[in-house]
Structures are given as C-alpha cells and as structure tokens.
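Subject: mismatched residue count in predicted assembly?

I count 642 residues in my input, but I want to confirm that the predicted structure covers every chain. Input:
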Amino acid sequence: MNKSFSLLMLLCFVYSCNSNKVDFAIVVHGGAGTILKKNMSDEMELAYKLKLEEAINAGYNILEKNGSSKDAVEQTIKILENSELFNAGKGSVLSNKGVVEMDASIMNGKNLNAGAISGIKTIKNPISAARLVMEKSEHVFLSGEGAEEFARLQGLDIIDNEYFITETRLKSLLNAKKRDSIKDNKFGTVGCVAIDKFGNITSGTSTGGMTNKKWNRIGDVPIIGAGTYANNNTCGISSTGWGEYFIRNVVAYDISSQIEYKKISIDLAAKNTLRKVKDLGGNGGVIGIDKNGNILMDFNTEGMYRGYKKSDGESEISIYK
Amino acid sequence: MNKSFSLLMLLCFVYSCNSNKVDFAIVVHGGAGTILKKNMSDEMELAYKLKLEEAINAGYNILEKNGSSKDAVEQTIKILENSELFNAGKGSVLSNKGVVEMDASIMNGKNLNAGAISGIKTIKNPISAARLVMEKSEHVFLSGEGAEEFARLQGLDIIDNEYFITETRLKSLLNAKKRDSIKDNKFGTVGCVAIDKFGNITSGTSTGGMTNKKWNRIGDVPIIGAGTYANNNTCGISSTGWGEYFIRNVVAYDISSQIEYKKISIDLAAKNTLRKVKDLGGNGGVIGIDKNGNILMDFNTEGMYRGYKKSDGESEISIYK
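Triage response: the counts match. Full output below for your records.
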C-alpha cells in the first residue's frame, strides 16, 4: 500500500465517522393504544422491550450483512408474530366468532411491488404469505380460503387456528362481548420498515385486527396506501391504529405524497396526517424511514411499542409517550 | 314585487346564465380496455350507449330534484349492475372456479365516510351493500360470507349466484383457461362520481373483477384510495383498470393528493397518475369530478365506456379514444 493511498483511506475513514451517514436502518412498532405505565408491571415492560430488541436486532443483523430490506422486514415481523405479546400471528385477538383472522401486507419501495392477505386462519406467519403474494403471484391482494390455498401451494407452514389463541385474548373477547362495542378495544398491530445498504426501502405490517370484529371485517393493515406503503423515492410507512380511520385517510400514502408533492419532512408529513385522523375521531400511530434514513415514530395515543436502530449507532426502544 | 327587487332578480338571472356555473354533475364509466370500433357491431355500440345514458339520466334526475350525490351514485351504479353489458352485478366475469365474486365501494366526500365489500356472491346490488357498510356499520370494509351476512341482516336482496352468470362470461372463462393467464383479459368495472347542489361529492365503483381470477383475489375496486376516493375539498374519483397496478399506485388518492398538495387541475393530476400506472406496466382509466364541477374522463387503453351530464347543459357519451 503506498503512502497516498493510505492517506486517502484515512480521509475516507474520518469522513465516514463525521458525516454520520446512515447506510441502513430499521424501525419497528408493536401496536399503539391505551398503553399506560401505571397498568404495566415491570416484568411485562421488560418482556415487551426484550422482544422488540430481539426483533430489531434480527433485522439489523440481516441489513448489516448486506441483506435486503425485504428479508429484514420479514424476519423481524416473524419474531413479533411468533410472540404472544403482540396482536399478530400467535396472540392475535379473537373475532366475534372466537377465531383468529389475520391480515398482513408488505411493499417493496424499489419497484412498488406489493403483497397482502386478509382473513387467514391457518398460516403460521402471515407476513411470509404476503411476501409470497408479492413475489410469486400476479396479484397484490388475496383473501380468505383462497389466500390459504395459495400459501399452502407455496409450501408455507399451515397450523391449526388453536395455535394462535391465548388465554389473554379469550378474556378480552368475553369483556368486549359484554360491552358489545368495538370502540373501547385497544387495537394492536406489528410493523417494520427497513432501508438496506442499497437504498431499498421495505415496509410490512401484520395484525389479528380488532377484538370482537364481525362480518370478516378488513382493517387498514392489508390495504396498500393505508396500513403499508413503500417507495424508494420518498419513504416507507407502517401504520397501527383504528383501522377504519386509517383507511379513510389513506394514511401511509398520505405521508409519502406530502414528501413527494409538498417537499416536507417525514416528521411533519406524519404530524399532518395523524391530525387528520384525530379530526375524524380516530387515533393510532405510524413508523417510517425516509430515503435518507431519517426515522419516524409518531402517535396520538397514550403509548406505542416501538424502537429503531441505525447503522450510525443510534437506537431506541420505548413504550410510553 | 317592487322595481329594485325585479332588477336584482334580472341581474341574478343574467349572471347565472353567463357564469356557466355547475350546480351539479354526474360522470360514469363502464370499464376500460381493448375496446375497438372494428370489433363492435352497431347494435352493441347502441346498446352500450343507451344503457350509459339511462344510468346517467337516473342519477342526474335525482341531483336535479335536490337529491344527494350518494343516492345518485347508488342508483346509477345499480342500473349498470343490473345490465348484462358490464362487468359488475349481473354479467360479472367468472373466477377460476366458475363463480361470480364481486367487489364494490363507495365514499362520501363530505365526511370521508366509506364502505366497501369484497368477494360477495349473492347480493344482487353490491353497491348497495357497500353503502350499508358505510352507513350502518362501524366498519369500512367487510368481506366474503361475513359481508353477505351483514347485507342479509340489513334486508338487502339475496339472489343465487346463477343469476349473475351469462353465456358470454362463461365463454370468456373457457378462453382464459386455455391461455392460462390473467394478462390478456380485458378488465371491466362500473363507476360513478356525482356532485350535488349542496357541493357534496360521492364516488362509487363496482366490479366482478378479472376473468379466471384465483385465490379470492381482491382488486382495486374495494380499496379506498385505489379504486374509489371522494373528498369535498378536492375531488371524487372512480378507477377502472388493471387492479394490481391501481393498488400499487394508490390511483384515486394520488389524484386527490396532487390537487390538494400541488394545487394542480384534476386533468393534469390524472395524467400524472396514469403515466405512473403505465410506467409500471399497467393500464386503465379514471373518471372524476372536482369541487368546482370540472369533469375528468381519462384513460390509456383503446377505449373506455363513459359519459357525463352537467347542470349547465353539457353532456357526452363515448366509447373509443
């Protein structure tokens, strides 16, 4: 190695340390709602934080090893789906009929490809089914038994609906039926957005929907533009909140379109959009990453399980406001 | 009546004649695709035009008698659903399993209320089911058997799936199965946007989806933001085209958001959005009305069944480019 080359290397090293450039990043949510410190034991709080950390690190490690944001988002969400703590996969809330009906979606910001599934009952990891719809079908959105048939043909793990059901969610359903309303039920969702070293953004969201939901209700999670959106030129977004209000406000795309058309920051765009949701009577939160690696975590509820990790060393895991 | 009052009346009359003010308006589409003059008999062309005219007039008459745009859109779409000519209601295309599975949605621009249903097989008029979801449920989007149960409870007409099936669509399915692809199948949809005397915009869309569709595929039609969007502050939009590309581009809301954030006309906004659809490899068309009563009818296919009528006397019914 000659002297001038060594000097160049040193300069590059110093520059990369100073510029704080974000090569890759990942952000995660585990649902927003009436999450209050006073109602949470120290053990539960720790359990949530450890699981969020585990999920974030799984995705981060993929990104660090030059992996794609698609792989990072899928693996991160699978960990949250496999945990009973969150309303997605195992631990999903129960419908009015006492079964788990799950929705999920994923979008690739590089080519605007997207996949979504709704009302599935026997696919262990709904986010993987959504990804297969994106990559292995001519469609974007499959539902119910058709979606399950497709996932089976693609070789995904099929599992009995009983697997998803937990005692906690059974109790919630009984309480909700006593109240006979969906209004007071805390909503939950899991979601992840990642940007990889190649500048590709992927967003994914997965949920069991609302406790006591009826009539094969579909929320915002599988709706591209509402629950999930990704575009390398703007940002990636994953929503969690009162789905009906998020659909009516086209939340995820409304944030992206403000970045594109108003040239404002992801933070300001999200503030504007969440205000629209609130003005209509809804609430919830959003996470996102813009094309420069800036992280968004915003919500108008008491809390949102959330966290992020960036290649520049910054990270955070939080629950309350 | 005194002299000055008469003069005022006269001035108002002259002003209203000159300003060409649009008090109310309605626009309709019956699907876009490979619709070529050379493949159309004079009889069929006349049949399409007469049915479009009948549907437009039904809605127009409601608006003229101070009716709401919600009523106008529902009644207009019902006429198109009840006709075998269009891919919605009776005359819907057949899924891979040889049944009719219909999607529809409606949105009220006054309060951003919305209703949508997908995968229904036994509701005579899907647009009416979507409206009931909007007005009589806490949800926005219901699907499959749950949506049918809801519609039944609301007293809607239930009808055997056989009712919807026509010989023409059976032949199309057989042809599509021979080709084993969804790519070459002309898509069809019906849609309507209206603005009433009170400035309220409603948009609605209804379809049987794509011939030979599998796995309970959901297209753009029931997706608020993609197939349908309405906002009194911007515009109302109904889409028709290759649904997957319309979902990925969040077509209906992309037009509205450009009006809101870029302050451009509905025509220019639609042009930008349809170009995005084309750049990804998709095609189709959109209709709409902005808050000032300006009519949009644009498409990048060979034809689109379409027409409009405005309170200032302007009207048009067309099929080809």
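The radius of gyration of chain A is 19 Å. Marking this ticket as 'not a bug'.
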